[in-house]
Amino acid sequence: MIPLTVGGVRYDLDASAMSAIRYRSKRGKSAIGEIVSAEGDMLPLLIRITYEMISGEKPDMRTYAYAARREEGFYDAALGAVLEMIKADPLAKPQGGKSKDAFDEFDLLAAYGRSGLPGCLLYELPILHIVSILNRMNPTEPTKRLMTNDEVVAMYPRRGKPKG
Question: Of residues 164 and 155, which shows the higher confidence score?
């Protein structure tokens, strides 16, 4: 949890992948996609993202936004919290270039479900850390192969001697 004080109230922000997924679910847009495509003043975006990152009881959004705009140091603290949420795995190999596909947390969630990884990781790790784990697992490679002759004979034994 990352502490953030807004309007004299301390909030604990959840920097796990679930915060980005929650943002996508409630706002209809990818948090990462909005960060990447942000132009100009990022303060409204940081207010929306940090609001969805609040763990526990949340204030009214208008009250939170009003206090955040007046809080000295909010921008830097909020940016630090958001960067923590999208932090990549430090052991991951750097990926070159940009993807032509837009990032979508729901696609990540679907790939995560197919991976067989325990669900608790979504509540513990930042979202791009999860992406790097899934990339290392490389679930898109085919796992099917042809059976060897010995495997075919073992699985389908002859029931009798051939006639002839």
Answer: 155
